[in-house]
Design goal:
The chain is an alpha/beta fold. The protein is built from 18 helices and ten strands. A ten-stranded mixed β-sheet has the order 1-2-3-5-4-6-7-8-9-10, sandwiched between helices. The longest helix has 22 residues.
Length: 542
């Protein structure tokens, strides 16, 4: 979860590092139809992918796939999916295609896969074509867009406080903004809003698998992409060749155990507030244990650095520094914990400037990837359409402030942030027409490999352990480290086990634990460019 750019205020464009995280009519053939329960849906042919270089002399190929809006009516309205590929680099050694979802919901694969390609294990890049796509409703695919112009979208974004609301007046402004967004979305394309569920995207993924000619799916999904993987594994259990899901969304928490009457919003059910609070505590402790040349915000000890942070946040609640309000700073703190390098060092630098009464610059966006549209529209409504359609959240605006205070008592500033992450769902106008809510234990053709990080600010490690129990055949590989996703916070140990599994099907021994290559505030700098944190929800999850 991802993973960042969520309903509650994500970074925009290619810099999205969102953390918002957020059934079952599908074309089923053969044994999958019986396993899923119910007759096969209407048949539809796999889309043809006419690959062409994304840009002249580029290394990535692009294509467009057409899929049904509604799999119950495959001859009806069609949607377009923007698809991207990097061919296997090992001549004569190609095994097939690895499909990659970068998280979110709302993560545009056509942007994030090229940005993150260098982080895939070398052996995997040699043996597989790596293919990603912008899911339905997102980015350069047929997208949810509730505004008539970029200026209109920017005016809406500016109508609410940055990060999270503080005080009754700001809370009222937030609710009013999201009610306005819901009205706009309902007016522009209400049918599309009902057909962007994770289950719909899983059906799209199975058609893409057929399009590349693979008899079974090889898949890597991070953050929200883990929920997409779990959904696919239970809709098409006999089509799973190898599946790695990294930074795990617990499907039972996401779907509210199949109930449509939630007491808590999605991310409090998941425990994202507790996980973010624990990660923030480690950030402050490790910062306080080193020198200011390694961590600019250090106060000389873990205790003193924690106290310094708490004093700074109290000061910002009373008096912002320029545009850096308490709400913006709390959101920036959680989002910056996603990437150990450069996120933690950059966060420390900004906190120190705020401590000195100086307004820091916002983090710079990553370089644009070599694709025709390197900065597609990624409005908050795209993530909301998936999250709110899939995952039940309280509809009564009056419950969110008491929930915020309760979460703050157990998780501090991170609790406030995660409470508001899904508030857009309180007024969202659509529920998914075809969503999958379980069961989650259908036996798959091959086991699933889960990767969980102990200190993850979005997807808690206990969720990874719970999902390992919920799936029928899964093995948990633990990263004893920090940040959101092992892909974006590299571990050579994790990469070795992932490569063995993806290439040869060999699982790590039960209970295996790995460490990161570059711990926080270490002198060593990681190689390769990390671009984003997990999709449109990376402010909330990815």
């Amino acid at each position: 979860m991802l993973i960042a750019g969520s309903i509650a205020g994500r970074r925009r464009g290619t810099a999205a590092v969102a953390t918002v995280v957020v059934l079952c009519t599908t074309m089923l053939t053969g044994p999958d139809a019986a396993v899923a329960g119910g007759p096969p849906g209407p048949s539809a042919p796999a889309p043809q992918l006419r690959w062409r270089p994304c840009v002249q002399n580029g290394q990535f190929d692009c294509a467009t796939a057409k899929v049904p809006l509604d799999y119950d009516n495959p001859a009806g309205r069609a949607l377009e999916l923007a698809v991207i590929r990097r061919k296997a680099t090992g001549p004569g050694r190609r095994l097939g295609t690895l499909f990659f979802n970068p998280g979110g919901p709302g993560g545009p694969g056509t942007i994030q896969m090229p940005q993150e390609y260098a982080l895939f294990p070398r052996e995997v890049r040699e043996r597989f074509d790596i293919v990603s796509w912008d899911p339905r409703g997102i980015g350069s695919s047929t997208a949810v867009n509730c505004f008539a112009s970029p200026q209109e979208a920017e005016a809406w974004r500016a109508s609410k406080p940055a990060g999270l609301p503080v005080g009754a007046r700001q809370r009222a402004a937030w609710f009013a903004a999201y009610q306005d967004l819901a009205r706009r979305c309902q007016q522009r394309d209400p049918v599309l809003l009902r057909h962007v569920s994770t289950a719909d995207t899983a059906r799209d993924l199975d058609r893409l698998r057929r399009s590349v000619g693979d008899p079974q799916l090889t898949y890597l999904g991070i953050s929200y992409g883990s929920f997409l993987g779990a959904t696919y594994a239970n809709l098409f259990p006999h089509k799973v060749r190898a599946m790695v899901i990294d930074s795990i969304v617990d499907p039972l928490a996401w779907t509210n155990h199949g109930s449509s009457t939630p007491r808590l919003p999605t991310f409090l059910r998941m425990g994202s507030d507790l996980s973010a609070a624990a990660t923030l505590d480690r950030f402050l402790a490790l910062c306080g244990s080193t020198t200011t040349d390694r961590c600019a915000f250090s106060a000389g000890s873990p205790k003193a650095t924690r106290e310094k942070f708490d004093r700074l946040m109290r000061r910002l609640r009373a008096r912002p520094v320029g545009t850096w309000t308490y709400g913006r700073t709390a959101a920036d703190a959680v989002n910056s914990l996603y990437l150990v390098h450069p996120g933690w060092t950059g966060l420390a630098d900004r906190l120190q400037l705020l401590w000195q009464g100086r307004a820091p610059k916002a983090p710079s966006p990553p370089p644009a990837p070599p694709v025709p549209d390197p900065n597609p529209y990624l409005g908050e409504e795209q993530a909301a359409a998936v999250l709110c359609g899939d995952s039940p959240n309280p509809r009564d605006p009056g419950v969110y402030h008491p929930l915020e205070e309760a979460s703050a008592r157990r998780a501090g500033d991170a609790g406030r942030y995660w409470t508001w992450a899904a508030v857009g769902c309180a007024s969202w106008p659509a529920v998914a027409a075809d969503s999958y809510r379980g069961p989650w234990n259908r036996p798959t053709a091959h086991p699933v490999l889960l990767v969980g990080t102990r200190y993850d600010p979005a997807t808690p490690y206990p969720d990874a352990r719970a999902t390992a129990r919920e799936l029928a055949d899964a093995r948990l590989l633990t990263l004893d480290g920090y940040g959101h996703t092992a892909l974006l916070n590299p571990s050579s140990c994790i990469q070795t086990y992932e490569s063995r599994y993806l290439i040869g099907g060999t699982l790590p021994p039960a209970g295996t634990t790995c460490r990161q290559d570059a711990p926080p505030f270490s002198a060593r700098k990681p190689s390769g460019g990390v671009a984003t944190g997990g999709g449109a929800l990376a402010d909330r999850i990815s």
